[in-house]
Specification:
Layout (H helix, E strand, L loop, with lengths): L1 E6 L2 E3 L5 E9 L7 E6 L6 E6 L5 E3 L7 E6 L4 E6 L8 E7 L16 E2 L3 E5 L1
């Protein structure tokens, strides 16, 4: 079992930035696919970005050029640097961990086995 804890959310004005962190503990599977998702009321959980240690990185079109995903396997951590934030980025952000490397379906929540509790990001 893997425990995930997100942090770094908050309120920011449009154009600003935030850095989210996801700390993993327990039986971590170093190298496997980790991803950031976000969710707003009434909408499905949306894939934002994914990364594995095999060099796979993908972003949703809506965040390309503004968000950067990274990971530090020695620290069992993943990060999301968010710049040029827009009001439509407002959501609860979740990190997810898969028991496999990333593939073309990285943005499907069903592909992830463990989730954090989420961190709120509000852009006004």
């Amino acid at each position: 079992h893997v425990q995930l804890v997100e942090s770094g959310g908050g309120s920011v004005q449009a154009g600003g930035g935030l850095r989210l962190s996801c700390a993993a503990a327990g039986n971590t599977y170093s190298g496997y696919c980790m991803a950031w998702f976000r969710e707003t009321p009434g909408k499905e959980r949306e894939g934002v970005a994914a990364i594995d240690s095999d060099g796979y990185i993908r972003y949703a079109d809506s965040v390309k050029g503004r968000f950067t995903i990274s990971r530090a396997d020695r620290k069992n951590a993943m990060y999301l640097q968010m710049n040029s934030l827009k009001p439509e980025d407002t959501a609860v952000y979740y990190c997810g961990v898969s028991l496999a490397y990333c593939d073309g379906y990285y943005d499907r929540p069903s592909g992830y086995n463990f989730w954090g509790q989420g961190t709120q990001v509000t852009v006004s």
